[in-house]
């Protein structure tokens, strides 16, 4: 099957920042990897913990050192992995082999997005060499792998349109392409883009069987929305709403992992350092949302298009809260380096700490009730 990725992520190559190796994560180790480590007497096999609870399929866990670094990380200037250097890429634990790839296996293709917790990936949100956002097959740095492991949806029904009604592949493809185009409109604030996406989703999910197929209905709706991407109505997300959505993600963090909290006195930092600079950074923020939309597991975990849009609202809220945190630490207005750090922290929460299935369940109520209530749940408010 084709391996699809965003052109935004094409050309990814590890720059050995060490961020993943110093994140403080316990790393599951498969039996074959554990055996190879024990057989190589140059590796500290004592770093493999085998007692207590172990993840499914793991024979051991690599426990991080007190400072959060993996005991196999060579933090001596080379910034390499001892396992990788001595035994090769194929002998790394699966989570290390695949990071920062987040993979969705579907009947028509393998879709791969990347985690922006990786500093190299986060920097790609600011690149100027790709033109319009798009999906590309066999992208360098993405598709050149022998294995792709992630959420396997090859044997299940397509994502739901709304509770009880499944979509079809043609509709899903039209929706995927629409999301990228809607989040790639020059000068559009991310909140305005999300409100437009929510309105389009509402029309698509309102389809009923009759004179036209769902795919034709979706294609017509998308075409009309794409021709008129901008509205005279402006939209905003209040800090109160961003905080509520951020807390939903934080409450979904896997037990045993540290839950992030909203910074104290966030309103002051937001008004003084984040909100005045927010519009200047609209393009990388929209790109972050586009990357969160592509190959999203939540499409299969949730019960409809509203949930998919709500997940993007949570992602936007996470960037906003983390931007407040970063600008407060630096005591300076939001700029590209601080936004880069906010993207990293947002994906740390959404891709690595929170349980996607738990978060989707917390968003399930958005599928019920009238559209204005759904917009309010997503934290989107029309400005006067």
Describe the protein.
- The protein is α+β, with helices and mostly antiparallel strands and 384 residues long.
- The chain has two domains: 1-31 and 43-156, no CATH class; 160-382, no CATH class.
- 44% of the residues lie in helices and 10% in strands.
- The strands form five sheets. Strands 9-1-8-7-10 form a five-stranded mixed sheet, with no helix packed on it. Strands 2-4-3 form a three-stranded antiparallel sheet.
- A hairpin with a 4-residue loop joins strand 7 and strand 8.
- Helix 8 (239-250) packs across helix 12.
- The chain is globular.
- The model has no long low-confidence stretch (mean pLDDT 93).
Count of distinct strands: 14
Basic shape: globular
Strand order of the largest sheet: 9-1-8-7-10
> What's the number of helices?
15
* Total separate domains: 2
Unreliable residue stretches: none
Gyration radius (Cα, Å) is 21 Å
Helical residue percent band: 40-55%
Largest beta sheet, briefly? 5 strands, mixed
**Strand residue percentage:** 5-15%
What structural class do you assign from the helix and strand content?
Answer: alpha+beta
Write out key terms for the chains shown:
alpha+beta; 44% helix; 384 residues; single chain; 2 domains; three-stranded antiparallel beta sheet; globular
Write the layout of secondary structure elements.
Elements: E1 3-6, E2 27-29, H1 31-39, E3 48-49, E4 60-62, E5 73-74, E6 80-81, H2 82-87, H3 94-98, E7 101-105, E8 110-114, H4 119-124, E9 135-137, E10 151-152, E11 160-162, E12 165-166, H5 169-182, H6 190-205, H7 214-227, E13 235-236, H8 239-250, H9 266-278, H10 282-293, H11 298-301, H12 305-330, H13 336-353, H14 356-362, H15 371-377, E14 381-382
Helix pairs in contact: 5-7, 6-7, 6-12, 8-12, 9-12, 10-12, 12-13
């Amino acid at each position: 099957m084709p391996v699809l990725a965003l052109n935004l992520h094409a050309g990814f190559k590890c720059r050995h920042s060490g961020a993943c190796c110093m994140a403080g994560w316990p790393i599951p180790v498969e039996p074959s990897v554990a055996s190879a480590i024990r057989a190589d007497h140059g590796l500290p096999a004592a770093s493999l913990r085998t007692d207590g609870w172990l993840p499914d399929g793991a024979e051991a866990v690599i426990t991080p050192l007190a400072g959060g670094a993996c005991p196999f990380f060579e933090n001596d200037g080379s910034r390499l992995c001892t396992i990788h250097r001595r035994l090769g890429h194929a002998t790394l634990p699966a989570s290390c082999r695949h990071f920062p790839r987040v993979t969705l296996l579907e009947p028509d293709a393998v879709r791969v997005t990347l985690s922006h917790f990786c500093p190299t990936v986060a920097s790609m949100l600011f690149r100027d060499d790709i033109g319009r956002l798009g999906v590309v097959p066999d992208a360098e740095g993405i598709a050149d792998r022998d294995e792709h492991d992630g959420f396997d949806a090859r044997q299940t029904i397509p994502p739901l349109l709304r509770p009880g009604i499944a979509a079809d592949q043609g509709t899903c493809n039209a929706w995927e392409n629409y999301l990228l185009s809607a989040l790639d409109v020059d000068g559009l604030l991310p909140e305005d883009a999300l409100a437009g996406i929510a309105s389009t989703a509402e029309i698509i999910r309102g389809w009923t069987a009759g004179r036209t197929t769902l795919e034709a209905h979706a294609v017509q709706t998308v075409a009309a929305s794409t021709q008129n991407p901008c509205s005279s109505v402006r939209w905003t997300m209040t800090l109160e709403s961003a905080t509520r959505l951020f807390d939903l993600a934080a409450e979904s963090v896997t037990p045993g992992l540290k839950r992030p909290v909203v910074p104290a006195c966030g309103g002051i930092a937001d008004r003084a350092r984040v909100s005045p600079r927010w519009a200047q950074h609209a393009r990388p923020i929209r790109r972050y949302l586009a990357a969160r939309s592509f190959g999203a597991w939540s499409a299969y975990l949730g019960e409809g298009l509203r949930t998919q849009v709500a997940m993007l609202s949570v992602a936007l809220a996470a960037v906003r809260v983390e931007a407040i945190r970063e600008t407060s630490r630096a005591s300076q207005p939001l700029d590209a380096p601080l936004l880069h750090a906010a993207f990293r922290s947002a994906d740390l929460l959404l891709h690595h700490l929170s349980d996607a299935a738990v978060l989707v369940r917390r968003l399930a109520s958005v599928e019920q009730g009238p559209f204005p209530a759904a917009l309010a749940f997503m934290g989107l408010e029309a400005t006067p």
